[in-house]
Amino acid sequence: MHPIDEIRAHLTRREFFGRTATGIGTAALAQLLGADGLRADAPAAVGGFPGFAPKAKRVIYLFMNGGPTHVDTFDWKPKLKEMHGQPVPESYVGGKRFSTMTGAAGGKLMLAPVEPFRQHGQSGAWVSELMPHTAAIADELCFIKSMHTDAVNHAPAISFLLSGAQLPGRPSLGAWLSYGLGSETENLPAYVVMTSVSKGTSCGQIFYDFYWGSGFLPSRFQGVKFRSSGDPVLYLSDPAGVDRGMKRDMLDDLAALNEQKLHDFGDPEIAARIAQYEMAFRMQSSVPELADFSDEPKSVLDSYGPDVLEAGSFAHNCLMARRLVERGARCVQLMHAGWDQHNSLTTELYNQCRDTDRASAALVMDLKQRGLLEDTLVVWGGEFGRTPFIQGNIADRPRWGRDHHPYAFTVWMAGAGVKPGLSFGASDDLGMNAIVDKVHVHDFQATLLHLMGIDHQRLTYRFQGRDFRLTDVHGEVVRGILG
């Protein structure tokens, strides 16, 4: 439905409250923003979703900015070790596009994994010794080892994976989920984003706002970014001399003015502003409680690692993610930067794994122990992988690196709707190209929406004369991973 028509369709109900009560006021806002389908982010805004019984009600996306090296973490290739120091075979790279840092790949030398791999669990999943905590929960995970993408640089690749387009401007995954499914809570945003970066890293990536933007959807569906230091959200406390009752009266008066403009102009962004003011008011109570870990058992805090109480750390954000979904958040996106090891495989890769491995595994098990993993989907992965050949001088081990690699990479999923203890798909014997049960980015997006009860072809939004969707005009559900 066109945004203007959407607003007009709701006007009669809103006018009803305005004419039968005391204006828009508190009661009208409670109905406009409440749980009966009239609130600005309600499922009724789209209708028909979920279209079938969802396996997952919510998703936590652990996004590793920079491109984790699949051949050093989860994609064991014995032949890569055998060919260490030998030129890459032309048959593997001929005609392929790499970043400008690699240029033509011909003549590049193959680089063995920096640490050994071992098999783990009943599933026998291969995991690098860099990831001991993830290895310990291998039977809970579904590894997809045949991912591939179209982009060779970071921002386009992240945008492509999260929004379906390499150029900024499309809605992100979380925005689509908020738009299609609405919110499970009135007191917290449906879509929350948190960012982190390893201390002292030299290869951190920029967190662009469009990674969690709403694109051409109304702005009320964009991700709400929690800060990495201090209060998660600014201005949670009222100014001196302003109590909750006074703030409520102020918001009611402001809503009345905005409602009049909404009636006059039919601009959906005015409705978004009304909803945002109301959400901010409610978050003044809900967010301080959310961020207070004093009620967490010591055993839980210890499982996430020593950084869990440090605001802005990946471990802290993982525990926040569990608390958010526990309280009704629909999509939580954790973005951890620093996986861009062009010349730091033997230094910063170790730091990245150490900072994220324990907390990622703890999150999965924490959700499971609380019965939340049954309907929560956890995803771990980056925008692409890293080249099986070296970037740099093979004689200078402290400066070993790998370049961007879109042709094969690995993600893992856990929880609602996916088969645990499964390694799906495969890359070739050098980890160069996805060759078995290939999973394109659009297939991955279609599958994630399917797990949330959404047919990716039906979740659309009309903009500039055409219907857009997350998967563009592509995408097939990867049924081989479905539980």
Report the span from N to C terminus: 34 Å
- Rg over CA atoms, rounded to whole Å, is 23 Å
CATH superfamily, by name, is: Alkaline Phosphatase, subunit A
Number of strands: 17
Instruction: Look at the structure and give the mean pLDDT.
Output: 88
Q: What count of structural domains?
A: 1
Q: Which structural class fits the helix and strand makeup? A: alpha/beta
In short:
The chain has helices spanning 3-20, 25-32, 78-82, 90-93, 132-136, 154-163, 173-181, 244-265, 268-290, 298-304, 314-326, 348-369, 441-451, and strands at residues 58-64, 117-120, 125-128, 141-148, 191-197, 224-225, 331-337, 376-381, 385-386, 404-405, 409-415, 422-424, 426-427, 434-436, 439-440, 461-463, 466-468. The protein has 483 residues and is of the alpha/beta class.
Describe this structure in words.
With 483 residues, the chain is an alpha/beta fold. The chain has a single domain, classed as Alkaline Phosphatase, subunit A (3-Layer(aba) Sandwich), CATH 3.40.720.10. 33% of the residues lie in helices and 15% in strands. The chain contains 13 helices and 17 strands. Strands 1, 4, 5, 6, 7, 8, 11, 12 and 15 form a 9-stranded mixed beta sheet that branches. The protein has a two-stranded antiparallel sheet with strand order 2-3. A two-stranded antiparallel sheet has the order 9-10. Strand 2 (117-120) and strand 3 (125-128) form a beta hairpin. Helix 8 (244-265) runs antiparallel to helix 9 and helix 11 (314-326) packs parallel to helix 12 (348-369). The two termini are 34 Å apart. The model is unreliable at 12-45 (pLDDT under 50).
